[in-house]
Specification:
two-stranded antiparallel ribbon; 56% helix; Four Helix Bundle (Hemerythrin (Met), subunit A); mainly alpha; 2% strand; globular
Length: 163
């Protein structure tokens, strides 16, 4: 069974998918300034998971160029919807190789990200979860501004989440 934090991260991922279900590739790259577009959000969240759980935790780089395209403080961009989802799936599959093996004692272990201050795994998971929820709210708002209808109205089914 996955650590409860990991279960919560997976739930946040599933809520992003639920929020964006039915979005066309054309709408996914439309920017409502000053925000980025929906495809950017998908890539941006994948980029954080890539940094934490693939690069820092496993010392691998499977998403070359993703940080340049959708990283923190990068200029606005409108990346391909399909390419961002493909990157997201690749990254989260690799991230899960690490996350599936977390034990309670592992949460206090720090990751050494080069020149940045080391942070505990538990704190990084929480930061990752909260980052998803931040952009989920933004994505819901953007979809409403794009005129999308029948959007999710509340948090999804928590009965599947191990806690």
């Amino acid at each position: 069974m996955a650590h409860p934090y990991v279960s919560q991260l997976r739930f946040a991922r599933s809520e992003l998918e639920r929020c964006l279900e039915g979005t066309s590739p054309e709408d996914a790259v439309r920017r409502i300034k000053p925000m980025n577009c929906l495809s950017w959000i998908v890539g941006h969240l994948a980029n954080q998971e890539h940094r934490y759980w693939v690069q820092w935790a496993q010392d691998k780089n499977i998403a070359l160029g993703l940080d340049d395209l959708v990283g923190h403080s990068r200029p606005p961009s409108t990346p391909s919807w399909d390419e961002m989802w493909a990157a997201c799936r690749r990254v989260t599959t690799s991230a899960d190789d690490y996350l599936d093996n977390l034990q309670p004692g592992t949460l206090s272990v720090t990751l050494q990200p080069g020149d940045r201050p080391a942070q505990g795994v538990g704190r990084l998971i929480l930061r990752n979860i909260y980052h998803y929820w931040f952009h989920l709210g933004e994505a819901h708002s953007m979809r409403q501004m794009l005129g999308h209808r029948d959007l999710p109205q509340f948090v999804g089914d928590l009965s599947t989440v191990d806690i």
